[in-house]
Amino acid sequence: MDKFGFPEFLFLLQGLKWTVLLTIISFVGGGIIGLVIALARVSPVKTIQRAATAYIALFQGTPLLMQLFVIYYGLALMSFNIDAWVAVSIAYTAHASAFLGDIWRGAIQSLPKGQIEASNALALGYVSRMRDIVLPQALKISLPATIGFAVQLTKGTSLAAIVGFVELARAGQIVSNLIFQPLLVFGVVGAIYFFICWPMSILGSHLERKLSLGY
Amino acid sequence: MPTEKQLSVSDNEVLIELKKINKWYGGFHALKNVDLTVRKGERIVLCGPSGSGKSTLIRCINHLEEIKDGSIRVAGQEIDKAAKSIETVRREVGMVFQSFNLFPHLKIIDNCTLALRRVKGIPRLEAEEFARKYLDRVHILEQADKYPAQLSGGQQQRVAIARALCMEPKVMLFDEPTSALDPEMVKEVLDTMIGLAEDGMTMICVTHEMGFARQVGHRILFMADGEILEETTPEAFFKNPQHDRAKAFLGEILAHH
Ligand SMILES: Nc1ncnc2c1ncn2[C@@H]1O[C@H](COP(=O)(O)OP(=O)(O)OP(=O)(O)O)[C@@H](O)[C@H]1O
Ligand SMILES: [Mg+2]
């Protein structure tokens, strides 16, 4: 086997499937937990606030690679018999939740104080204040940064190869080792990443321009 | 030409009662033993130099600011630590801010219906009917489906008034409602407020619009350094201010008009 044919390409697409799946799972999971983290971070209760700050600091202050190792081997050591797929999903979800949580925390805190005051003056409770006033505006403000993070996350999933998870980058490595054409193979792999991430970036800057024009 | 004020509100029930309230911002004593009683239908104008505590005072009434000691009672409900007491008071008190504070992501109509639906649990359609009534009252019904940013400052402030009125409050608080407006828009907002006054709304207005004060105010309070220094009728205050601070203040206001 020495040329890059359809089976090889198909193998790469298999890898792509896992890349996309891992990205979606960690983005959705990280989004849900990140929302909780963001709300905790702006909570009036000091203990909750500090716990969220620590969580964010922990995941932002250590390399993703290390987080992967710790969660992957840590879970194994605690004799949870889980496969790479689950471990990697947990690690990336935790990673994404810290970053998304911090992005959204910033957006929430950037809202004019008058929005909260008007909500309070109208007797709106916490749930309505968050759901109807704060979060819709904060998520809108943070949309470009959120998409930017999704792009980073997509590319960042390639690190999962290190614990034996066969996603797009790892699939490229395998094919390259078989056919000895690293430049060609990784060129194709790079192109695939590019055509996934590029439209997201375009969307991000488009939204950024649109939002800066106001409502 | 001043309109005829209601002859007397002195027999009406007490709606707001502040007793010896003290407010601190860190080490700064912003309100010093302030007492204030407001009766139903009464219209009070609050004035004084910048930093004297006018905003702080009215923001204590609906607990946007927390006091250190003293008591606040609104429509029979004493504000205590319980969230319930705060909510009860806020339901009875409408507030209009200097910078409008409309919700920019919601249409005008939704700005007005939100609290009706979320706080009072009124179904959307019914709430909208309600909101239309008040938008019509501030002459802005035709803008109901626009977003706040599409409206002029004066229009936004009238929406803010309608939004507060939708909750059918017993008292309306105004914190310099016209001072962020272009001069040509001041009148439309003041006219709206005068309309409210004519309908008998109980109002506390922080404002430097002295014509408005004369026309609708039963009482004017002059504040300086966290204290109410004078409390009298607008006529008496303008003709014959007692304190030097009040004289200086009036001199400056007149110089600017
Ligand atoms: N959140 C705050 N933290 C610290 N100090 C504050 C705060 N809010 C107000 N102050 C201070 O309290 C004092 C009274 O403020 P307040 O806003 O009530 O004055 P005001 O009479 O409404 O003035 P203005 O006419 O400028 O609106 C001022 O000295 C102000 O600097
Ligand atoms: Mg003020």
Which key phrases capture this entry?
heterodimer, A: 215 residues, mainly alpha, MetI-like fold, 0% strand, B: 257 residues, alpha/beta, 6-stranded mixed sheet, 4-stranded antiparallel sheet, globular, binds adenosine-5'-triphosphate, binds magnesium ion
Task: Please characterize this protein's 3D structure.
The complex is a heterodimer of chains A (215) and B (257). Chain A has 215 residues and is mainly alpha-helical. Chain A has one domain: MetI-like fold. In chain A, 81% of the residues lie in helices and 0% in strands. Chain A has nine helices and no strands. The model of chain A has no long low-confidence stretch (mean pLDDT 92). Chain B is α/β, with parallel strands linked by helices and 257 residues long. Helices cover 38% and strands 25% of the residues of chain B. In chain B, strands 6-7-8-3-9-10 form a six-stranded mixed β-sheet, with helices on both faces. In chain B, strands 2-1-4-5 form a four-stranded antiparallel β-sheet, covered by helices on one side. In chain B, a hairpin with a 2-residue loop joins strand 9 (219-224) and strand 10 (227-232). Chain B is globular and about 55 Å long. The model of chain B has no long low-confidence stretch (mean pLDDT 93). The chains are: A mainly alpha (215), B alpha/beta (257). At the A-B interface, helix 5 and helix 6 of A face helix 2, strand 6 and helix 3 of B. Residues 25, 28, 30, 48, 50-56 of chain B line the site of adenosine-5'-triphosphate.
Q: Give, in spatial order, the strands making up the sheet with the most strands of chain B.
A: 6-7-8-3-9-10
What do the pLDDT scores of chain B average to? 93
Provide the low-confidence segments of chain A as ranges: none
Q: What share of the residues of chain B lie within helices?
A: 25-40%
Radius of gyration of chain A from the CA trace? 20 Å
E-strand count of chain A: 0
Structure annotation, total helices of chain B? 9
- List the quaternary state of the chains: heterodimer
Q: Any idea what the shape of chain A is?
A: flat
- Largest inter-chain interface? A-B, 19 and 28 residues
- Please, what is the average pLDDT of chain A? 92
Number of strands of chain B: 10
Radius of gyration of chain B over alpha carbons? 18 Å
Beta-strand content bin of chain A: under 5%
Q: Could you state the order of secondary-structure elements of chain B as H and E?
A: EEEHEEHEHHHEHEHEEHH
Q: What is the CATH C level class of chain A, in words?
A: Mainly Alpha
CATH architecture call of chain A: Orthogonal Bundle
Order of helices and strands of chain A: HHHHHHHHH
